Hints:
The complex is a heterodimer. Chain A is mainly beta. Chain A is 0% helix and 51% strand. Chain A has strands at 4-7, 10-13, 19-25, 31-38, 42-51, 54-57, 64-66, 76-78, 87-94, 103-104, 108-112. In chain A, the strands form 2 sheets. In chain A, strands 2, 4, 5, 6, 9, 10 and 11 form a 7-stranded mixed beta sheet that branches. In chain A, strands 1-3-8-7 form a 4-stranded antiparallel beta sheet, with no helix packed on it. Chain B is mainly beta. In chain B, strands 2, 4, 5, 9, 10 and 11 form a 6-stranded mixed beta sheet that branches. A 5-stranded antiparallel beta sheet of chain B has the order 1-3-8-7-6, with no helix packed on it. The N and C termini of chain B lie far apart (38 Å). The chains are: A mainly beta, B mainly beta. The interface between A and B is medium-sized, with 30 and 25 residues.
Amino acid sequence: DGGITQSPKYLFRKEGQNVTLSCEQNLNHDAMYWYRQDPGQGLRLIYYSQIVNDFQKGDIAEGYSVSREKKESFPLTVTSAQKNPTAFYLCASSPQRLGTEAFFGQGTRLTVV
Amino acid sequence: DQQVKQNSPSLSVQEGRISILNCDYTNSMFDYFLWYKKYPAEGPTFLISISSIKDKNEDGRFTVFLNKSAKHLSLHIVPSQPGDSAVYFCAANAGSNYKLTFGKGTLLTVNP
């Protein structure tokens, strides 16, 4: 069954700890994205990658890091430098082709206590 | 600076009537527009899209209209159903840049 898998669905971490969110896709898509959703803020782009071993900062990259060592995987690390890490995180992927939509995973709710 | 704007945070309509969700954009380089539907604690799902070379695209009960001169698009849902109740996001991208820029969303409530 093709799709995007984010894990875990819920994640709790202590303040000051780094945490890595997993995103895997088997759609053979070249591009992958991380978005963050906060109430009233819509979806804001953190990082995106259009090809393996390359990625670009989005609009709110500070305090986050990513890697793209494999086409299927695009993990996001929320570092202790991120001031307000509690949010709903969404991973997406899309083919490198004009006029196509991005497919989203089910999201990870990160709560920092 | 918000490049994609959905100025109505919420909209309430009666079942069977038309729902009209609006979206404005400021970046004239945007050439592809999409609407996504999102339920709480789930990822958005793609609904319908439109290329800038068109002014209308229809898919069943959903129609998207694009007015490039006004930098405005709208999503029409006819007839509205209670299952349509969700947050609707407008998104856009520009040329070969596959980065999608989203609006803040509009919460649609369809009352039985």
